[in-house]
Amino acid sequence: MGKSSQYGVVLDAGSSGTRVYIYKWKNHAAAVKDASVTQLKTLPKIKLKESKKIHPGVSTFADKPSEIGVNHLDELIKIALKEVPTDKVSETPIYLMATAGMRLLPKPKQTALLQSMCTYLQASTKFILPDCNAHIQVISGETEGLYGWIAANYLLGGFDHPEEHDHGKNHHTYGFLDMGGASAQIAFAPNATESEKHSNDLKLVRMRTLDGSPAEYKVFTATWLGFGANEARNRYVESLWDQYGGKTIQEVPDPCMPVGLTTTLRGDYVEGKVDEPVLVGTGKFDECLSVTYPLLGKDKPCPDQPCLVNGQHVPGIDFDINHFVGVSEYWHTTHGVFGGKHTAYDLASYQSIVHDFCTSDWQDIESELEKRKKSPEKKAEEARAACFKASWLINMLYDGIGIPRVGLEGGHGNSTAKETDKMEDPFKPVDKIDGIELSWTLGKMVLYAAGQVPPQGTALPVGFGTNVEKGTPDDFEHAGSVPIGSHSGDDDDDDLDDILKKPGSSTSGIIAFVFVLLLVAYLLRKPERRRKIFGMVHRRRRSGRPGRSLASKLFGRNSLGSYERVMEEGDLSDFELGDVDSDEKRPLR
Asked: What is the active site of this protein (predicted)?
């Protein structure tokens, strides 16, 4: 894309490692130059240049925060610098957003780590990083889910081509499910009835299409810390330990492992005898489903009806129109040990495959794995954890969230749908859509890019916050970018002209503007004042990064937000999950 290119870097600091994402797009002027009327009604188009993960997670540096720069961030920055041209680095924003692993740390340790990471990035790179609090932060699970919802609908076409994703009842977006190692998230747009009933529980999401028009959505998002696959297993092992007498027993029967598999309580493989308690697989998968069900906390009090798991309020889900995609563990647990990359997912087949595997003898499984030429040790490690993860996924999806059991009987849910037998594909696990990884980090970049588009008329900022009928809520989290032509230096998307045009603020705006002009005139009135001020500016520029003002550091000379199309080839009708790298053989409607 040459000189019209822009870049953005996001570091996803998860519980098991940090993944760097480098995104690329065109500036706004280039994007709209030859755009059709239809294309102008779409969001800016972003392309993923590169993503790579390193281990371990940033939380492992909690007791040695001063080491995280050289021993962790440095490798990630080198990856980013290979993709971002040298002359574009100082115009490229960088964000580091930590998720569940950091949320589990005490606040003082979080703060120390965040400060150390920001200090290192500001001192060692020329990426745009003007505000540590905005760019280097621990994001809430709700925010993570909301970004994921934006990314999913962006890639699937729910935003740009609503007519091709008509689910009925004037609904055209998809729900989003995410499960990592420590937490799980849900985000969806309820039907009109539920939205009105639970309006105070929704988030207002505002974006901007290439023609400057606002695009608003009302979304519910929730998170369950401790309900990720790894943390859920920790709770499960504790319950087994308590059930079988704690310290008085050396071998604890585990129905969630194949017959004869022996591990430590931490999950490490054991051969022979060890001087610590161990789990011994019994291969009783039906029992595994039963003993993991209580971990959902369905019996917890629900002060604000309705609830899903652990007493968490969630508006009723209308599965006639709310169709979900699931990422991370929802994908890996259905397409790792129990299915190939292109294996279509359906509950009946999946549960049958899982049952056959998890009731098998571990020695037979191990023998089969040893025949594989590619990463047999890694495959064995995944296989040891697979049965618990499968049981947790099944319980979470169908008894927790209430996804209809298409083709199967039973289940407890929070569904408002009346006829589940008429629904198709209420849930799809996905990894990539048209070759692009479905990551919540893309949602962050979509907002950033949309915030750069010049608005039509009175500007309302791009971002998200508490649902309000009009205007912008006090807790609104801005996209972090400004529209082209903006004269303001903050993160608000309003420029000076827009502020002066706002009803009720024209007089005060003009007075403020005149005051600033008078102040500048006074400061520069005498030659000695001019020399002193210009000398200070000159010295500051020489001692800092050469020749760049704060405005140019923040926004860059070419900070005009526009994009290459994510879906560059193929007919748009193919994107009803038709190009999802998972179960894309049947369309999700």
From this structure: 144
